[in-house]
Design a protein that fits this description.
Layout lengths: L8 H12 L4 H10 L13 H10 L3 E7 L7 E6 L1 H16 L7 H7 L6 H30 L8 H26 L5 H9 L1
Antiparallel strand pairs: 1-2
Length: 196
């Protein structure tokens, strides 16, 4: 994956939104929200204008119009440029094709788990598993409703999120089972460390 001039996922979401049609930043924000992109991309609406300005600076978007309605302030409408389409396509291709190391906070917690006593970890993981099971049930219900009105293409990120939560729940369930039964290799040393 080559070095990108911009690496903020919100910039990619803006390019993809402007790929649909030219818009002013407020309309971009509304479209992202309406299309549910805020569930898969961290969208800070306050920084959206900064992202659009950065895209313009790099030649990926350009001003296509300035609108004025009544007494409202002028609204600058932006459209994606040819360079922006190329950047978006290459960026998307890289993201789809090439796995990248991500740093989920739960993975960080697991890497430092030894600071807690195993007996403390069990109820915490039980609590997490309960929350994951609620997420799974609500995610399945929401997907079933969405399948009634939207083509699957527009729901693949929801499917992926649900599968990732299901995979995490399965792993937590198995790890909890090892902790409860005392079959986790090294558990006695872990306990002894806390009992010193």
């Amino acid at each position: 994956m080559g070095r990108r001039k911009l690496r903020n996922p919100l910039a990619l979401a803006v390019l993809a939104t402007l790929w649909q049609k030219p818009m002013h930043p407020y309309e971009i924000a509304q479209t992202l929200r309406r299309q549910g992109k805020d569930a898969s991309t961290k969208i800070n609406y306050g920084s959206l204008y900064t992202v659009v300005q950065s895209l313009e600076k790099h030649g990926f978007v350009e001003v296509t119009d300035v609108e004025r309605q009544g007494n409202r302030p002028e609204r600058t409408v932006y459209g994606i440029t040819a360079a922006g389409r190329q950047e978006m396509t290459e960026w998307m291709s890289d993201l789809v094709a090439l796995p990248a190391k991500e740093y989920p906070i739960f993975e960080t917690a697991l890497s430092l788990l030894g600071v807690l006593h195993p007996d403390e970890v069990v109820p915490l993981l039980e609590q997490r598993l309960d929350a994951l099971e609620v997420q799974i049930a609500s995610g399945r219900g929401a997907l079933e409703k969405l399948y009634e009105t939207l083509p699957r293409l527009f729901l693949v990120e929801n499917e992926y999120q649900l599968h990732m939560v299901e995979a995490e729940a399965a792993w937590v369930r198995g790890f909890l089972d090892e902790l409860r039964k005392g079959t986790l290799p090294g558990i006695e040393e872990w306990k002894a460390f806390h009992e010193q």
